[in-house]
């Protein structure tokens, strides 16, 4: 065991609260074990060696799976993350574990200097965090966690406590991050969108002067192969953007990089719909939130839908214009039940066509266009398939009544997650494992897929009425 793993090791092995099948090698037990191994007492690390702290959207996905194992731990996961929220509403993308050595991950707390450089923006004093954000999956996760055990949730006042924080988070994104002026939230760093090395960033990043390689030391290369990870030049640009943001006190508005991303905004919309449900559970009407979700959906279509390509694109707010790269983020709006039917149908066709190969040449949807110039089946976010995007697409297919295709995708996700030992990502053609194994959201979303007992193919099923109905929102229509 390396030093980081020792320091973050479990104090006590948590119980598995649900009733797993007796076969210790079953997918349920193996996935639950990953989450147990990655649990640090208040949250779950994405991967012990490569990512030894708490990550924002990882924690949301992890909570979605963890709720089937321990609703209490799932609530705690969210509460720990929200405990590190800044006064301006932002939820930082990393919450650092103080017992992990500084050199275990770069950029470390002494790079971000949140409690000093972030003071004006209201960074917490007692916990060290990064200063950027990640996709807003949190309200959706909180609602799904609540639904796993409403009695426990009500007894602990879970929603009552998290709702104001989630509302402040959305306010931050909608007001401070509307850098394009069209109603959508912009990301100000590739790490914020979560698909760090996507070819969609190449053009906007080209304007950024890289920080010299000698000024930082990459810890990711201690664990991952350089051919699979972003290049030093990419890292130099990531560092420059983050350092400039920090040196400006994490104030929003003036940075060199600002992009409206369809997945980030689709997740904001899905979470706004979830906040409407939380508001209703707490006795309010939620109607203003539902109306806002509909306005955001209209803005998403107006600003990022490309009818000719049949996919949503990223909009480069600084360079002005759509970035003509087909990335999996452009398929994610399928998860929105309120998407017009013709757009949903086009997205389904694009996902199953030559650019993403679902149901044909690929096992899982690649992160980037199979026919794109920058495609590489192994390099970070430039081709490999991730399980969180697969899970979102599976839900999107089901929400839009594509049960057979959703069933096929679900079966592939489950098979490859287990066969790859819950890999961080896989080769989209072969399913071969890449990156870390024992990866948090891969295990968690496996549990979520296993928990849903919808038959792999066929019409709407009895077991489906729960989460998917909740996910659909007011206007959702099942075409199954
Ligand atoms: C930077 C933790 C995170 C994920 C991201 C993924 C990767 C970090 C990195 O790991 O990003 O945040 O060091 O590359 O791209 O989606 O949240 O799992």
UniProtKB/TrEMBL annotation:
One Pfam family name is MGH1-like_GH
Which controlled-vocabulary keywords does the entry list? Glycosidase, Hydrolase
Would you tell me the protein name for this molecule?
A: Mannosylglycerate hydrolase MGH1-like glycoside hydrolase domain-containing protein
State the family it belongs to.
Answer: Belongs to the glycosyl hydrolase 63 family.
Record-linked InterPro entries: 6-hairpin_glycosidase_sf, 6hp_glycosidase-like_sf, Glycoside_hydrolase_63, MGH1-like_GH
Which top-level group of life is the source organism from?
A: Bacteria
Species of provenance: Streptomyces nigra
Where does the record place the Mannosylglycerate hydrolase MGH1-like glycoside hydrolase domain?
A: 51-442
């Amino acid at each position: 065991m390396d030093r980081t793993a020792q320091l973050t090791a479990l104090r006590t092995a948590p119980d598995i609260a649900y009733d797993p099948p007796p076969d210790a090698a079953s997918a349920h037990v193996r996935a639950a074990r990953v989450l147990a191994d990655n649990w640090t007492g208040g949250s779950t690390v994405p991967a012990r060696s490569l990512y030894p702290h708490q990550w924002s959207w990882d924690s949301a996905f992890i909570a979605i799976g963890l709720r089937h194992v321990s609703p209490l731990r799932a609530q705690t996961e969210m509460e720990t993350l929200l405990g590190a929220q800044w006064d301006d509403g932002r939820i930082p993308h990393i919450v650092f574990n103080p017992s992990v050595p500084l050199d275990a991950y770069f950029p470390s707390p002494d790079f971000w200097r949140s409690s000093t450089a972030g003071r004006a923006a209201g960074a917490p004093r007692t916990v060290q965090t990064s200063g950027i954000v990640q996709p807003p999956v949190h309200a959706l996760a909180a609602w799904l966690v609540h639904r796993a055990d409403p009695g426990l949730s009500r007894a602990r006042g879970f929603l009552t406590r998290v709702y104001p924080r989630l509302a402040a988070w959305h306010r931050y994104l909608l007001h401070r991050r509307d850098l394009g002026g069209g109603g959508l939230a912009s990301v100000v760093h590739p790490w914020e969108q979560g698909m760090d090395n996507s070819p969609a960033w190449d053009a906007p990043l080209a304007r950024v002067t890289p920080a010299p390689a000698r000024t930082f030391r990459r810890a990711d290369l201690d664990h991952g192969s350089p051919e699979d990870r972003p290049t030093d030049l990419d890292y130099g640009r990531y560092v420059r953007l983050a350092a400039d943001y920090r040196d400006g006190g994490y104030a929003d508005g003036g940075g060199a990089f600002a992009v409206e991303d369809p997945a980030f905004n689709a997740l904001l919309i899905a979470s706004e719909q979830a906040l409407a449900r939380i508001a209703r559970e707490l006795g309010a009407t939620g109607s203003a939130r539902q109306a806002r979700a509909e306005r955001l959906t209209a803005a998403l279509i107006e600003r990022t839908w490309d009818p000719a390509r049949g996919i949503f694109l990223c909009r480069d707010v600084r360079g002005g214009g759509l970035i003509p790269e087909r990335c999996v983020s452009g398929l994610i709006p399928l998860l929105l039940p309120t998407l017009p039917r013709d757009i949903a149908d086009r997205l389904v066709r694009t996902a199953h066509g030559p650019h993403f190969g679902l149901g044909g040449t690929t096992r899982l949807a690649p992160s980037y266009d199979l026919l794109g110039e920058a495609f590489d089946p192994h390099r970070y976010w430039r081709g490999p398939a991730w399980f969180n995007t697969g899970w979102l697409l599976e839900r999107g297919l089901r929400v839009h009544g594509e049960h057979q295709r959703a069933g096929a995708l679900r079966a592939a996700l489950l098979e490859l997650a287990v066969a790859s030992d819950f890999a961080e990502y896989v080769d989209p053609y072969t399913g071969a494992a890449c990156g870390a194994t024992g990866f948090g959201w891969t295990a968690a979303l496996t549990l979520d897929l296993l928990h849903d007992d919808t038959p792999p193919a066929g019409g709407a099923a009895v077991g489906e009425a729960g989460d998917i109905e909740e996910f659909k929102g007011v206007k959702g229509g099942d075409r199954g």
